[in-house]
Fold this sequence. Notes:
mainly alpha, transmembrane, membrane
Amino acid sequence: MTASLTVACLWALVATLIAMAPRRWHWPAAYALALVGIPLLGWITYENGPFWGMLALAGGASVLRWPLIFLLRRMRGQGAD
């Protein structure tokens, strides 16, 4: 397993631990996970190819689905309410 996939597994483990944490930690942790996950996604794609990059993108989007939904709503002009 390459270093980028190992770090991606650690990212997923941290995301799982954050999901078990108190709710007040979820949104700040989601921003931190996204901040770390975007460069990680580029590293995975560079090191392992587009198939693994798309697979990591799908996994990250499934973990961070609510921030992604709110971002898409805000981009369409519907607001986050």
